[in-house]
Amino acid sequence: MNTLVIYTHPNHQSLSYAFLQEVLRGSRENAQAAEIQVLDLYEEGFDPVLVFGEHKRRRDMHTDPALAKYREQLLWADQIVFVYPIWWGRPPAMLLGYIDKMFASGFAYQDKGGLVPEGLLKGKSAVCISTMQGPTHYPLLWLHNAHKVLMRKALLNYVGIRRVKFFEFGSMESKRGKHARKLERIYQFFKTAR
Predict the structure, then answer these.
(1) Of 69, 70, 81, 158, which has the fewest beta carbons less than 10 angstroms from its beta carbon?
(2) Does the structure show a pLDDT above 90 at 142?
(3) What single string gives the DSSP state of each residue in 4-28?
(4) Is it the case that residue 141 has pLDDT exceeding 70?
(5) Which run of H or E residues covers position 135?
(6) Helix runs in the chain, H state only
(7) Burial of 158 (0-12, 13-18, 19+ CB in 10 A)
(8) How far apart are CA 131 and CA 19, in angstroms?
(9) Closest Cα to residue 149, out of 97, 78, 89, 101?
(10) How do residues 86-130 score in pLDDT, each as one tens digit?
(11) Strand (E) or helix (H) holding 29
């Protein structure tokens, strides 16, 4: 199983970075994990801004040579792991910009003229690991699960990725946030994932 980890946090001293390390530690100890690649969007200097004009059109984004390396990573991966904080009820703008650019028509999905397009990334799985300041159930109770709806239905299912697992960790800025237990949970998941 080839795993692409897309890490989105500007600080390597963050709890998100600690979760990234547990993903890597567990995956390296898993006999099913063939190869792991990490794409650190901030360290990479990924440009999340969409720019279109007379010579650059949205419908041509799936062939943009500047994004070829990232398209190859997504095609290579059997499993895509997203590690990010939830800010204002959603992933960071950097990750949303990556999604806007990479999950483009002609690459991630194809419009067939029907109600629902054909997802072109079928057969892959995804894991979303997110942290937030508020309580774990805040997105469900207050935001009607907007984060999960965005990631699962509006993005991953739309492009053909049906197997999606979420780890949403709340109260992460609290000293009683049970950080060690949550980090161990991620390590164990990736150590035994199939």
Answers:
(1) 69
(2) no
(3) EEEE--S-TTSHHHHHHHHHHHHHH
(4) no
(5) none
(6) 15-28, 41-44, 68-76, 93-102, 138-143, 146-148, 179-192
(7) middle
(8) 9
(9) 89
(10) 888 789 999 999 999 999 999 999 988 777 889 999 999 999 999
(11) none
CA angle 40, 45, 47 (to 5 degrees): 110
pLDDT at 139 over 80: no
| pLDDT given at position 172 | 59
CA distances from residue 3 to 80, 98, 186 in whole angstroms, order as listed: 6, 18, 15
Encoded amino acid at 117, one letter: P
pTM given for the model: 0.90
Which of 3, 89, 85, 10 has the alpha carbon at shortest distance from 45? 10
Residues across the chain: 194
